[in-house]
Amino acid sequence: KQKRPRIIKTETPVIRDVAFYQDVVNGLTSEPKQLQSKYFYDKEGDRLFQQIMNCSEYYPFQCELEIFSQQTEMLANVIAKAGATADLIELGAGDCTKTRYLLAELVKMDTDFTYLPIDISENIIDFLNAQLPLDIPGLKVNGITGDYLQMLGRAADHSDNKKVVLFLGSNIGNMSPGEAAEFCMNLRQHLKPGDLVIIGVDLKKKPATILAAYNDKAGITKEFNLNLLRRINRELGANFEITQFEHYPVYDPDTGGCKSYLISLKKQQVMIPCVDGSTWINFEENEPMFMEISQKYSIKEIEELGRNAQFRPVANFFDNKGWFMDTVWEA
Ligand code: AVJ
Questions:
Q1: H or E segment at 250?
Q2: Are strands 162-167 and 86-91 parallel, antiparallel or unpaired?
Q3: What are the pLDDT digits (tens) for 40-83?
Q4: d(Cα 78, Cα 80) in Å, to the nearest integer?
Q5: In this predicted model, what pLDDT tens digit does every residue of 288-326 receive, in sequence order?
Q6: What is the pLDDT of residues 153-188, one digit of tens each?
Q7: Can you tell which superkingdom this protein's organism belongs to (predicted)?
Q8: 17-21, Cβ contacts within 8 angstroms, sequence gap of 24 or more
Q9: Peptide bond just before 32 cis, omega within 30 deg
């Protein structure tokens, strides 16, 4: 057996994002192993997520698009009612396909507001800053790149304007229920009485429907998960053998937790290089790596979430199937 060199100098790329490196190494050296789903969204991840939104099985996107395109005026009225100059902050804006309806309506209604999209993908924010003012003349856009939990404070302290915070697409599902409760309380701290939040929630429904949304036949969700391993190879110079990991999603109707794992198909070692010596990660055969939670809620659970964070319920918007809800709370 060959001796492994402790310091590997050759293939080590310059680590551009130290937080990414640290989170990956921490997650893979903890027990059980895990990665953070916010890192799915590099350029390739953005592209794969676009494809997921076009999958017939992935209903949350279609449902919320229906709400935003069919009930635009009612949504806009909830926001415009206060009349004051507003900051419309969107956490995890993505390409903002759904929000565009609302933005166009608010501009049409002559509402005085600035749109502040926040997204972890720099790629997406550059696109929004350039494209949105062209698509919606008169719209003021000030996009910010970053982790939305970190950037929320910056966006909220941006001005004394009335705040409307959008947190759509079931992004809240990527937190555990405990983290979501903490997040809502945190969010409330950044807001003043009269400020609004609109949260997109994927509701509990037939378990097979939910599971299928995270296990599409075309295998795009599988690629979406595997792309994070590829990203770690690309950006951190690791040597994951992508074919030796299997996508395994599960839905637990008791808890409403839809979780995805990558399962190691064999006993194997993965190396993550670093200038002061690389880290070796040992996988057992069939060892799971936790990738993502997409939590589903009941209407009652969401009402409780808002109440516990000192929000007042204002309105709920549903798609025709009643599978998805955009809930409006007032601080
Ligand atoms: C963008 C977080 C809402 O959890 O449903 C889609 C991401 N993951 N398919 C979700 C996702 C797998 C999505 N969110």
A1: strand 245-252
A2: parallel
A3: 999 999 999 999 999 999 999 999 999 999 999 999 999 987 66
A4: 6
A5: 999 999 999 999 999 999 999 999 999 999 999 999 999
A6: 887 777 889 999 999 999 999 999 999 999 999 999
A7: Bacteria
A8: 17/235, 20/235, 20/236, 21/236, 21/272, 21/274
A9: yes
Q: How high is the pLDDT of residue 82?
A: 65
For residues 35 and 44, give the distance between their C-alpha atoms in angstroms, rounded to a whole number: 17
Q: Which ligand 1 atom is nearest residue 60's CA?
A: 5
For the record, the structure tokens of 295 come out as 């939590």
29-43 residue pLDDT tens: 999 999 999 999 999
* pLDDT beyond 70 at 4: no
Nearby residues of 237 by Cβ (< 8 Å), 6 or more positions away? 11, 12, 13, 272, 273
CB burial readout 217-256, b (16+ within 10 A) else e: eeebbbbbbbbbbbbbbebbbbebeeebbebbbebeeeeb
Find the 9 Cα to ligand 1 centroid distance in Å: 37
* DSSP of 43-63: HHHHHHHHHHHTSSS-HHHHH
The pLDDT of residue 149 is: 74
Instruction: Write out residues with Cβ below 6 Å of ligand 1.
Output: 52, 60, 169-171, 173-174, 214, 221, 224, 292, 294
* Confidence tier at 91 by pLDDT (50, 70, 90): very high
Q: How far is the CA of 170 from the centre of ligand 1 (A)?
A: 7
CA atoms of 222 and 229, how far apart (whole Å): 11
pLDDT at residue 314 in the model: 97
- Residue 156 CA to residue 8 CA, distance in Å, equals 44
Distance from the alpha carbon of residue 203 to the mean position of ligand 1, in angstroms: 14
Give which of 223, 257, 289, 231 is closest to 50, Cα–Cα.
223
Our CA angle for 118, 60, 99, nearest 5°, is 40
